[in-house]
């Protein structure tokens, strides 16, 4: 997938297991441990997402299912993934083409540690390296990850569809383990990061085993 004006996203799997990378826009691809997938996205992308899927099984037509992060049973995603999935979210060329904005969101739970940063290393990246699954509250544990409270309980307290909601005990749990991450539905300025627009970016699954390549 190529565009006249594009930003390159390099997606690396440094986990000791296979990850089925997913991207909107971009699709999806199986990444065995140590493999890399590069995609080009329009430089005016305003609602980009990247996440990893685990324990997937697809047939020759690219149809199947994943234990976590599944996107409608397709290898090449055409829609966002199901919780739990650790999300990288980004908006490119904002503020009159001056800034890129990005965050790591645990609002839909956690399944894989991840790091996101410029390939040039000009400004700080953002990461969630903790093994949240090991410490996940029993009521949020599911196969392949640690679910979010909205998905589990489906109440306004946790979903916060209306009104002025604040953090909950469950969102604070995620925040304690990954302080940079976005963990509930309302704006969190401390968890949204910006860089001058123009560079390419790298996503790394299980960055602790990579020692955060700069």
Automatic annotation (TrEMBL):
Transmembrane segments: none
Database matches in InterPro entries: Osmotin/thaumatin-like_sf, Thaumatin
Domain of life: Eukaryota
Disulfide pattern: 15-206, 56-66, 71-77, 123-195, 128-178, 136-146, 150-159, 160-165
The UniProt record lists the keyword Plastid: no
Keywords: Disulfide bond
Assigned protein family: Belongs to the thaumatin family.
Full protein name: Thaumatin-like protein
Organism the protein comes from: Tetracentron sinense
Lineage of origin: Eukaryota, Viridiplantae, Streptophyta, Embryophyta, Tracheophyta
């Amino acid at each position: 997938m190529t565009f006249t004006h594009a930003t390159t996203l390099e997606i690396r799997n440094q986990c000791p297991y296979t990850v089925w990378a997913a991207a909107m826009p971009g699709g999806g691809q199986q990444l065995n441990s140590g493999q890399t997938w590069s995609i080009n996205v329009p430089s005016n992308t305003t609602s980009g997402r990247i996440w990893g899927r685990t324990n997937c099984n697809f047939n020759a037509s690219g149809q199947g299912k994943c234990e976590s992060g599944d996107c409608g049973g397709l290898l090449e995603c055409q829609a966002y993934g199901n919780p739990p999935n650790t999300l990288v979210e980004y908006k490119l060329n904002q503020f009159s083409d001056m800034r890129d904005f990005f965050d790591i969101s645990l609002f839909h739970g956690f399944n894989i540690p991840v790091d996101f940063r410029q390939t040039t290393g000009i400004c700080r990246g953002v990461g969630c390296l903790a093994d949240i699954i090991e410490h996940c509250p029993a009521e949020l544990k599911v196969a392949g990850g640690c679910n979010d409270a909205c998905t589990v309980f489906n109440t306004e307290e946790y979903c916060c569809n209306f009104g002025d909601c604040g953090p909950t005990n469950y969102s604070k749990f995620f925040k304690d383990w990954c302080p940079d991450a976005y963990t509930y539905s309302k704006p969190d300025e401390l968890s949204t990061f910006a860089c001058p627009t123009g560079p390419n970016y790298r996503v790394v699954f299980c960055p602790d085993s990579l020692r955060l390549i700069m």
